[in-house]
Structure formats: structure tokens, C-alpha cells
Write a structure and sequence with these properties.
Strand content: under 5%
Largest sheet: none
Order of helices and strands: HHHHHHHHHHHHHH
Number of strands: 0
Oligomer: single chain
Helix content: over 70%
Number of helices: 14
């Protein structure tokens, strides 16, 4: 590795990302050892691995992973509901496979095989995936999806030109936001997290509708932000980094912000992927320290997600995703409504303050 190579800002950024990845792995291994000694199961289930694969596969292709993972984590299905979902997804998979095979006859066999495999993995994730308590979902999302996101950043940011100063400053802003956000969210009560994730999912659904209806800004030609635009971009990515710790993905809102600032649409990819790849380990460190995540589910996302990223980015590369986006929209809205209803029913888990000398509610008075 020559001095000239390391002095290139993009290469230096990738080296820093590799260092962050190593630190993240060390943190997760230490957390796994700690939680295993405390009696918490660590080995991911087949359904947990399937959840990691299916969510990160479509995340790499531009769908996003936080909203879909949240939906699977909250899918508490009875045996009859499991059979209904299996039949419905099976029928939908067959219809989608046939439709795509007719529209793209040159890739008929690959499409048929790929859709059937993805449908089977989705069924496995829904039927036997790890169920996570609402309070631990934000931490589990950040801990579990970090390494697949780092893999995405390595793959996608090497070829897209963008001003190094703009790239580094916006990444720093996202990291600072994640550090502050994770510290706040990890201390929230279950009810507050349910409300927060519900609002985040409704926001994600709004952004998804804008994408489906082609209402996103078109962007400009800039590859660099200066002056007021740079300040706005820094502040915007700071807020988005904090919101990501709550469960709203950074990709879509970051892309819209980049477009509105007049930057070239391609510049959004290294900015949003680099932001996530650096901020998620920072958020992960806070969630691990506060024990605000589910170890088994997080390991399932990580171990199932890495091969999915490699397959989607290096082999599949692109798919017609309009139908998938409509399906995700329905799932996101259903999950957001479910979280909102659960929050209204859930009593705040934070203990009420008790005046000095008075017994807490429910305790025996001698």
C-alpha cells in the first residue's frame, strides 16, 4: 500500500471503514460472550437467518431494511395465521414468478428460481423468525444490520465521484447524530419507543409513496456542497443519524435531502451508504453498553445479511421492484398501526416517582 494510495481521500475513507468494521466485530463478540454467560441464547434460529437474508437482499437493491425487519420482528402469528400466510405468499410467489418470466423471457429460468427461493426464505422468516420485544427493536436493528451495511458501503462507494470534504462532513454529522440518538433511545420506556417507531414507520411509508408516485426531487449536477448548503446538509444528516437509531432508515430521506440541495443523484449513494456504515457501529456501541438489543436476533440479521448483500450487489444487481415496494408499503403501514395501537394499550414501564416515606404502589405496608 503506497503513500499515494492512502492519501487519496476515498481510499483513506475505506481504510477507516475497515478499522470501524474490526472494532464493531470485537464489540459484538464481547457482547455475545457476556450475554451467553448471563444465560441469553446466542445462536440464531433458521428463521432469524432468513430474516437477515431477505431484508438485506432487498436493502441492497434499494428497498430498505429497517421497516421490513420491524414488521417481521412483530409478526406474532398463530398456527392458523401461519398457514394462511404460507398459502398467500406461496400463491403470490407463483404469480410474481410467472409475470416476471413473461416480461423478461431472456432471464426466465433465473427469475423463476430466484423468486421461488426468495419466497421460501420470506415464509421461513415470517413463520419461524425471532420475535423481539418492541423496546429492543431499535437496538437490534442497528446492531444486526451494521456489518451488511458496511459490506454495501465497500461495494458501492468506490466508483461514485463526490467531493471528499462534503462526503466526510456529512458522514461525521450522521455519526454524531447516531451517538446522541442511541443514548436517548436506549433509555426510553417501551411505550415511548412504540410511539416513536410508529411515527418513524409512517414517515418511511410517506417517503415510499413519494418514490412510487415519482414525486421525489430530481436533483441537480453538483458534486460538492459549500456555504449555506453545506451547513444545511450537515444539520440534516445530524438529524437523520439520530432518527436512524429509532428505526427510520437513512437512505430515502438522505437521498431526498441530497436532491433538494441540488446535488447529482449518484452522489447520494456514497453519502448515504457511508453515513450508515459509520454511524451504525457508533449507535451499536451505545446499544450494546445499555444492553438494549436482542443478541440472537441481531446475530441472525448479521450472519444472514452478509451473503445476501454479496448476492444482490454482485450477481443480481437489479430487479423490477415496483410490486415489491407496494407490498412493503402495505406491510409498513400495518406494522406502524400495530405499534401505535400497542403503545396506546401499553402502560409506561418507567416507575412513577414516589414521595419520600411513601410505599410504592403494589407493595405491602407493614
Amino acid at each position: 500500500m503506497s503513500p499515494a494510495w492512502i492519501l487519496d481521500p476515498r481510499n483513506a475513507l475505506l481504510v477507516a471503514l475497515a478499522i470501524v468494521a474490526v472494532i464493531y466485530i470485537v464489540l459484538v463478540v464481547r457482547a455475545a460472550i457476556r450475554e451467553n454467560k448471563a444465560g441469553q441464547a446466542a445462536a440464531p434460529t433458521p428463521g432469524g437467518l432468513a430474516t437477515g437474508f431477505i431484508t438485506n437482499f432487498f436493502d441492497t437493491l434499494g428497498i430498505g431494511s429497517f421497516a421490513t425487519t420491524t414488521a417481521i420482528f412483530r409478526a406474532k402469528l398463530s398456527p392458523s395465521q401461519q398457514r394462511m400466510w404460507m398459502m398467500g405468499l406461496g400463491a403470490g410467489t407463483v404469480i410474481l414468478a410467472i409475470t416476471l418470466a413473461v416480461l423478461f423471457p431472456a432471464r426466465r429460468l433465473q427469475i423463476l428460481g430466484g423468486v421461488v427461493v426468495l419466497g421460501a426464505i420470506l415464509v421461513l422468516a415470517l413463520v419461524s423468525g425471532t420475535r423481539v420485544d418492541d423496546r429492543r427493536i431499535p437496538g437490534t436493528l442497528n446492531v444486526g444490520h451494521t456489518l451488511p451495511t458496511i459490506a454495501q458501503a465497500f461495494i458501492f462507494t468506490t466508483l461514485v465521484p463526490v467531493d471528499p470534504k462534503t462526503l466526510v462532513l456529512l458522514i461525521i454529522a450522521a455519526v454524531l447524530g447516531a451517538w446522541v440518538g442511541a443514548g436517548i433511545v436506549s433509555r426510553w420506556s417501551k411505550r415511548r419507543i412504540q410511539y416513536g417507531m410508529s411515527i418513524a414507520l409512517f414517515a418511511a411509508a410517506t417517503l415510499l409513496v413519494m418514490t412510487l408516485l415519482n414525486r421525489n426531487p430530481s436533483g441537480g449536477t453538483l458534486l460538492e456542497l459549500t456555504g449555506t448548503k453545506l451547513v444545511i446538509g450537515f444539520a440534516g444528516n445530524l438529524v437523520l443519524g439520530a432518527l436512524m437509531t429509532l428505526g427510520i432508515g437513512l437512505y430515502a430521506p438522505c437521498m431526498i435531502m441530497i436532491y433538494m440541495l441540488g446535488m447529482n443523484p449518484t452522489a447520494a449513494f456514497p453519502i448515504m451508504m457511508g453515513s450508515c456504515a459509520f454511524l451504525m457501529p457508533v449507535a451499536t456501541a451505545r446499544f450494546i453498553r445499555e444492553r438494549g438489543f436482542d443478541l440472537r436476533a441481531a446475530l441472525g440479521l448479521m450472519l444472514g445479511g452478509i451473503p445476501a448483500v454479496l448476492i444482490a450487489a454482485l450477481i443480481v444487481k437489479s430487479l423490477p421492484l415496483t410490486a415489491v415496494r407496494w407490498l412493503v408499503l402495505v406491510v409498513v403501514l400495518y406494522t406502524a398501526a400495530g405499534l401505535f395501537r400497542a403503545a396506546r394499550r401499553q402502560e409506561d414501564t418507567a416507575p412513577a416517582s414516589v414521595p419520600p416515606g411513601q410505599p410504592a404502589a403494589g407493595t405491602a405496608v407493614p
